[in-house]
Amino acid sequence: MHLHILGICGTFMGSLALLARDLGHTVTGSDENVYPPMSTQLENAGITLMQGYDRSHLQPHPDLVIVGNAMKRGIDAVEYLLDQGLAYTSGPQFLADHVLQGKHVLGVAGTHGKTTTTTMLAWVLDQAGLEPGFLIGGVPLGFSQSARLGAGQYFVVEADEYDSAFFDKRSKFVHYHPKTAILNNLEFDHADIFDDLAAIQKQFHHLVRTIPSQGRIIAPITETHIDEVLAMGCWTPVMRTSIGQDDNAQLSAELIAIDGTHFKVLHNGTVQGEVQWSMTGQHSVANALATIAAAEHVGVSIADACTALSNFGGVKRRMELLGTIAGIEVYDDFAHHPTAIDTTLDGARKRLQQRKLWAVIEPRSNTMRMGSHKAELAHSARLADQVIWYQPEGLDWDLQPVVDAAANSACIARKLDEIIDTIVNQAQAGDAVVIMSNGGFGGLHQKLVQALQAKA
C-alpha cells in the first residue's frame, strides 16, 4: 500500500513513517519544515520527502493519506484530498489500528519529559531482552532510529495530549489504550487548542478511562493536577513515586549527588538499586522513577532497571552536548515551556557550580508565540548567568518586558548573527551555552559551533 504522510517531519509523524515502512508499505511525505535530525533519519530510511503541501504530491493518488495535526483547512493538499474523496486518517488512529492491536501498550504522558521517559523505558525493556516496539517523539541516542515494530508483546509509545488532526480534536493518547500508563506531570500548555487547564485535564481523564483494572498508573505524589484528574474517577491501581522518602510513595529516590547524576532507588523504603548516569536534574530523576515503575510492571526487576539506566545514553536535543570548543560547552535542548526551561537550567547550574551558564532561548512553540507564558519567562531563566532571548519576525508580542523583569543579565537579539557574535566575543573557557528551542532555530546550533571553531 502506498501511504503519503502530510506533515511527515514532525517528531511523531516521522516516527510513524518508519513504522509504516517496516510494515511493508511504500511511504512518501510532505512537509514545510524539513530539517535534521528527523529529515536525515527519514532520508536514510529511504523515504521520499517533498517540500511544501502541493496537491501534486498526491498524484498519482496514494492508497491512504495520513494527516498530521499541523494540517489545516485551506492547505492545498488538504483541500485536494477532500475534493477527490481520497482515503485519509490521523496518525494516532493509524498507529492504533495497524501497530498497537494485541500489544501490551506502555504509554508515557505528561506536559514535560515524555520523550526522554519514553526513550528510557524502551531502553530498559530492550536491555532486559524484551525486544519492545516503540514510538518516540524525538531521536534517541541509544537506538538507531526513533521507532521500531519490535519482536515482543510490548510497545512503548509517547502519549501526547496534543490533538490528533483537524477532523479529530481528541488528544492523541486517547487512541492508544495503554495497560501501563505514566502520568509524569500536568500543566497548562498548547494554548492554541486548549482554553484552560481543565480542558487538558478532561483529556487526561479520557485516557484514564481507557486503562484496564489490571493495568497500572504511575504518578508522582507532588502533582496535584494529576490528583484532580484521578479524582474524577480511576479504576486502575496507582503506583506513586517521590524524590525523597514519603509514606505515600511506593517508589522513591534518595539523591547521592545534588545534580541528580547519582541516586538510590527504594521500594517501600528498602534500597533496591542505584543509578549513576550522565543525566542531570531532579526532573531526570523523576523520569527515571516512572520508568522503573513501568518496567517493574512488566516483570523487569528494579535492580535490573537501575543497571540499564546507568548505561542510558539520552535523547538528541535534550541537553545534548554538541561540542566543546576552546573549553566552551555548547548544548542543544528542546525546552519549550517555562517549567522545562527552569528544570533544565537547574540541572545545568548544579552540575556547573560557579561556571558561567548562558541560555539562548527561542519562544517558538504555539503557546509561547501566543504569549500565554510570558509572565513566567523571566523567572524560568533566572539560574543562567546570561540570557539571550531571540525575538524572531512574526512573534506576536515584545520580549522587552521579559528582559526588564529579569533579576539576572538578559538581552534581546533579533538576528542569529547577533547571538553568535555576542557569544564568540564574550564566552570564556569553562562556560556552557544552552540553546533552547523546539525547532531548528535557523541552524543556530551548528553556526555557533562553527564560529567558535573558527575563532579557536
Automatic annotation (TrEMBL):
This is UDP-N-acetylmuramate--L-alanyl-gamma-D-glutamyl-meso-2,6-diaminoheptandioate ligase. Gene3D superfamilies: Mur ligase, C-terminal domain, Mur-like, catalytic domain, NAD(P)-binding Rossmann-like Domain. Reutilizes the intact tripeptide L-alanyl-gamma-D-glutamyl-meso-diaminopimelate by linking it to UDP-N-acetylmuramate. Its cofactor is Mg(2+). Belongs to the MurCDEF family. Mpl subfamily. One of its GO terms (biological process) is peptidoglycan turnover. Its EC number is 6.3.2.45. GO terms for molecular function: ATP binding; UDP-N-acetylmuramate-L-alanyl-gamma-D-glutamyl-meso-2,6-diaminoheptanedioate ligase activity. Residues 2-99 form the Mur ligase N-terminal catalytic domain. HAMAP family: Mpl. Pathway: Cell wall biogenesis; peptidoglycan recycling. Pfam families: Mur_ligase, Mur_ligase_C, Mur_ligase_M. Residues 108-295 form the Mur ligase central domain. InterPro entries: Mpl, Mur-like_cat_sf, Mur_ligase_C, Mur_ligase_C_dom_sf, Mur_ligase_cen, Mur_ligase_N, MurCDEF_pg_biosynth. It catalyses: UDP-N-acetyl-alpha-D-muramate + L-alanyl-gamma-D-glutamyl-meso-2,6-diaminopimelate + ATP = UDP-N-acetyl-alpha-D-muramoyl-L-alanyl-gamma-D-glutamyl-meso-2,6-diaminopimelate + ADP + phosphate + H(+). Residues 317-439 form the Mur ligase C-terminal domain. The keyword ATP-binding applies. ATP binds at G110, T111, H112, G113, K114, T115, T116. Keywords: ATP-binding, Cell cycle, Cell division, Cell shape, Cell wall biogenesis/degradation, Ligase, Magnesium, Nucleotide-binding, Peptidoglycan synthesis. The lineage of its organism: Bacteria, Pseudomonadati, Pseudomonadota, Gammaproteobacteria, Moraxellales.
